[in-house]
Every structure is written in structure tokens, then in C-alpha cells.
Design brief:
The chain contains 5 helices and 8 strands. By secondary structure, the chain is α+β, with helices and mostly antiparallel strands.
């Protein structure tokens, strides 16, 4: 029990270390993995803490990745690794993990692997270094999945009342809509224009707007047999909501 208590406290300390400014955490599931939403002293969300595990040169490498809500790395900590002493095991040193702080997903790769890469590999330990960047990429996959969920399910909290327009790409061309927001709810969806086949459009128009108004999110199933037309309409509504949210902020 004392070991368990120590490990629990240590993990809490590490979560705060990779997400500075956080004072509390809520555990959530992303793709079946235990991740954490960090909140600041005013109980406002400030980022995510994402545990990842990747294969290194000598075995599994376990890490904690902190990412703020602007998509930049707040911190990285290597919890456990079995890399070569004096070479690969240097991935756990702050001199290496600190290189990731402040970087975006496209920057957090080895310089030799991508034009936008900002990370220098540890000399004679390229495999270990690349494993860490692979783990960071895995963490960003979790982050992007969560942010995509938020953009579809909590975006209405940021939108003032009004009419907003958006567009999406259907099967045969753009679909344009106007959305009315009132009291943080989608009240009306009006189709401005579209060029879809009447056969497919009839199905989509009869199902998708109703689902959107009922669920109050664009995270709904598409119509079977009219996927691209459905997605075009959903994207148009989402585009209107994102445009409205930007104005609201």
C-alpha cells in the first residue's frame, strides 16, 4: 500500500510537471487510454496530459506528454526506458526532453526526418531519439482526437446568438448553409445552395438537419449510401459554428 500511495503521488507530481500551471486533473478516456485534462487555479481547462508507450532500441519507452490547448508541448517526461547506458538512455535527461517544450506537432520531429523538424538526435542514439518523437506523435494523435471531439460537442458554449454562414464540399460541389444560434443551441439550419444529386440530397436533407437539431452536434452518423453528401452538409454546419466561435472569442 505504501508503494502504491507513493506511485500515485509521484504520477500526480509528474502530471503537473509536464503541464505547468495546472492545479487539478480529470481522468478521461481517449481511444481507450487513460488521459488527463488539466485545469488551472480558476478551474479553467489548460491542457492535456497524455501517457504514451513506444518501442525503443532496448525495449519499451514510457512517457508523459503535456500539450496546452493551443497545440504546443508544455512538457515531456520519460517515465521508464531500457536504452543503452551512456547513449540511448540520455533521452530521459532534461537536456533532451526540454528540446520539445513549446514545439507543435510538425516541429517535434528529428531535423533529419522532416523539413519542419526542430529536434537534434542524440549522437549515436538516433533510434532512441526517433522513438521519442514517435511517442510524441502518438500523444498528438490522442490530443487531436480530443480536440476534434470538443470542436463538435462543446463549441456552442463559445457562440453568441446570431446567424452564421459556412460551407462544405459535397459529392458534386460546395454546400452552403446558414445557421441560427440562440441560447447556445442550434435553432435553425437553412440551406443556401447545393449541387448534389436530387436522389442523394433528398435522403440527406430529410435526415441530417433533424439529427443536428436533436443532438446539437455535428458528430452524427452520415446517411448510408450518401456519405459524401452527408459529410459536406455536416462540414458546412461545422464551418459556420467554427466561424461563429472565432467571432465570439
Amino acid at each position: 500500500p505504501r508503494i502504491d500511495a507513493y506511485m500515485k503521488n509521484e504520477m500526480a507530481r509528474l502530471r503537473q510537471s509536464v503541464l505547468p500551471g495546472s492545479s487539478g486533473f480529470e481522468e478521461i478516456k481517449i481511444s481507450g487510454e487513460d488521459c488527463y485534462i488539466g485545469s488551472d487555479a480558476e478551474n479553467m481547462k489548460c491542457g492535456l496530459v497524455l501517457p504514451v508507450s513506444v518501442k525503443g532500441y532496448g525495449g519499451d519507452i514510457r512517457m508523459l506528454l503535456g500539450v496546452d490547448l493551443k497545440g504546443r508541448i508544455a512538457g515531456l517526461h520519460v517515465i521508464d526506458q531500457k536504452e543503452t547506458p551512456g547513449l540511448g538512455n540520455r533521452i530521459a535527461l532534461p537536456d533532451f526532453t526540454g528540446r520539445f517544450t513549446g514545439l507543435t506537432e510538425i516541429e517535434a520531429v528529428l531535423k533529419r526526418d522532416a523539413p519542419a523538424g526542430r529536434i537534434d538526435a542524440i549522437t549515436a542514439a538516433t533510434i532512441s531519439s526517433r522513438a521519442v518523437t514517435g511517442g510524441v506523435k502518438q500523444g498528438f494523435n490522442f490530443y487531436n482526437e480530443y480536440m476534434n471531439y470538443i470542436s463538435k460537442n462543446e463549441i456552442l458554449n463559445d457562440i453568441p446568438d446570431g446567424f452564421y454562414r459556412g460551407s462544405g464540399e459535397g459529392f458534386t460541389g460546395p454546400i452552403r448553409v446558414e445557421v441560427k444560434i440562440k441560447d447556445e443551441r442550434i435553432e435553425i439550419i437553412r440551406i443556401i445552395n447545393q449541387q448534389e444529386s436530387s436522389q442523394f440530397w433528398a435522403k440527406v436533407k430529410s435526415e441530417i438537419p433533424g439529427k443536428l437539431l436533436e443532438e446539437q452536434t455535428t458528430d452524427v452518423d452520415t446517411v448510408s449510401g450518401a456519405t459524401l453528401t452527408s459529410q459536406g452538409l455536416l462540414d458546412a454546419v461545422q464551418d459556420a459554428l467554427e466561424s461563429a466561435a472565432r467571432k465570439g472569442r
